[in-house]
């Protein structure tokens, strides 16, 4: 069995790696202003992304994009994760950010929302998480009640990235709370300037990110703004999140690889008590653990991505990719920080940023415990009889 990436994927990998090494890693300490790219750097990187053929790489060809499959996207995500020059979330140097849910819109909705997004004229956010229903969408309290040719939405959303800059939101709300996630959750397109939509506050987090709390108070949304039909919202959200979980795994690949580069290099330079750190068994084992995790994660992520590209169901694969990708990359960042000692705590190096970001990803888009709970049910069904 051949576990190598196809030649075209290896060429893509080399292209992105050169881009990261030449254009991004050198500017890591000066690229961001708060949690956003500086405007001049953003413009410069957009031009360079177009020059190497990565503009709209994750947009389907029918909408003017490159149409990369999940395997190719995972290759790009893994290489980009080797640097902290870009924001942790909402990286848009490769073109406007397009939520995959927007491709499910009907023709009228695409004309009003999708096409302006692709042209950079509109921005959007995804509003699902709530104070009482983060990892458990079935407990969602935001409701959308049909009232004639409108739905009336009431509730609160939390940890919504990009809400302050969004022109519209994809809002996930309960249309039948008794059904919960089994046909009771729907998705809506909600213009952010609609009466009753209120941005409450930007939340400060340990990451370079500022998500928002949003209140919806008697927000009247035309019935034609529902995505798909009633009860299909959870399906749309989960389809998008499954690919997003592969992204977590791919990101883990890049983070572990960069930590190995930094850790091994420093261990061969730094001397303590007359010997290089690289001669210490405790340091060697840290590096070996990360090296083994990197190998395992590559096999898992690219296998899952290839299965997705072949049309197979990767729900449980995506759970494992996120669970292992996030936890093992955090361990790698933690070990790298330990190897560097006091230097690892400074912002002179990218280690502390990777450490903070990877710790946050263990929680977002599916906490580890919930993923393991779902995987446990799968394992018991498969092996328990």
Description:
- With 385 residues, the protein is an alpha+beta fold.
- It contains 9 helices and 12 strands.
- It has helices spanning 7-24, 39-51, 70-80, 107-118, 233-269, 281-309, 315-340, 351-361, 368-383, and strands spanning 32-33, 36-37, 124-127, 143-147, 150-160, 168-174, 185-191, 197-202, 212-222, 226-227, 271-272, 275-276.
- It has a 4-stranded mixed beta sheet.
- Strand 4 (143-147) and strand 5 form a beta hairpin.
- Helix 3 runs antiparallel to helix 6 (281-309), helix 5 (233-269) packs antiparallel against helix 8 and helix 6 (281-309) runs antiparallel to helix 7 (315-340).
- The longest helix has 37 residues, at 233-269.
- It is globular and about 80 Å long.
- The two termini are 30 Å apart.
Summary keywords:
Butyryl-CoA Dehydrogenase, subunit A, domain 2, Butyryl-CoA Dehydrogenase, subunit A, domain 3, 4-stranded mixed β-sheet, alpha+beta, about 375 residues, Butyryl-Coa Dehydrogenase, subunit A, domain 1
How many separate structural domains? 3
Q: State the low-pLDDT regions, or none.
A: none
Main beta sheet strand tally, sense and closure: 4 strands, mixed
Task: Output the strand order for the largest sheet.
Answer: 3-6-7-10
- Which value, in Å, is the CA radius of gyration? 22 Å
Number of strands: 12
Q: Looking at this structure, what is the CATH superfamily of the largest domain?
A: Butyryl-CoA Dehydrogenase, subunit A, domain 3
Task: Report the CATH C-level class of the largest domain.
Answer: Mainly Alpha
N- to C-terminal distance: 30 Å
Helices, by number, come to 9
Strand content: 15-25%
What's the CATH topology name of the largest domain? Butyryl-CoA Dehydrogenase, subunit A, domain 3
């Amino acid at each position: 069995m051949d576990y190598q990436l196809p030649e075209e994927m290896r060429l893509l990998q080399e292209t992105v790696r050169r881009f990261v090494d030449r254009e991004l890693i050198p500017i890591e300490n000066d690229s961001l202003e708060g949690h956003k790219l500086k405007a001049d750097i953003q413009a410069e990187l957009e031009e360079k992304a177009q020059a190497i053929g990565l503009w709209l790489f994750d947009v389907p060809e029918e909408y003017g994009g490159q149409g990369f499959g999940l395997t190719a996207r995972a290759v790009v995500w893994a290489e980009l994760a080797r640097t902290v020059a870009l924001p942790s979330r909402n990286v848009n140097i490769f073109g406007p950010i397009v939520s995959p849910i927007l491709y499910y819109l009907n023709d009228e909705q695409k004309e009003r929302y999708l096409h302006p997004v692709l042209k950079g004229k509109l921005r959007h956010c995804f509003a699902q998480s709530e104070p009482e229903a983060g990892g458990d969408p079935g407990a969602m309290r935001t409701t959308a009640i049909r009232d004639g040719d409108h739905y009336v939405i009431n509730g609160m959303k939390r940890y919504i990235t990009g809400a302050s800059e969004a022109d519209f939101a994809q809002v996930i709300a309960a249309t039948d709370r008794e059904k919960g996630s089994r046909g009771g959750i729907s998705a809506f397109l909600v213009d952010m300037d609609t009466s009753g939509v209120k941005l409450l506050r930007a939340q400060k987090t340990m990451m370079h990110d500022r998500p928002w709390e949003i209140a919806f108070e008697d927000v009247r949304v035309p019935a034609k703004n529902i995505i798909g039909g009633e009860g299909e919202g959870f399906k749309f959200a989960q389809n998008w999140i499954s690919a997003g979980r592969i992204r977590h795994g791919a990101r883990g690949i890049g983070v572990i690889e960069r930590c190995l580069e930094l850790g091994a290099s420093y261990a061969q330079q730094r001397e303590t008590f007359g010997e290089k750190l690289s001669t210490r068994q405790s340091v060697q084992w840290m590096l070996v653990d990360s090296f083994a995790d990197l190998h395992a994660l590559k096999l898992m992520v690219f296998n899952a991505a290839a299965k997705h590209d072949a049309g197979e169901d990767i729900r449980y694969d995506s759970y494992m990719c996120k669970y292992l990708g996030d936890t093992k990359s955090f361990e790698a960042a933690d070990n790298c920080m330990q190897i560097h000692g006091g230097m690892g705590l400074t912002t002179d190096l990218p280690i502390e940023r990777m450490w903070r970001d990877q710790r946050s990803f263990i929680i977002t888009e599916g906490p580890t415990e919930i993923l393991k709970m779902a995987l446990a049910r799968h394992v018991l069904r498969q092996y328990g009889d």
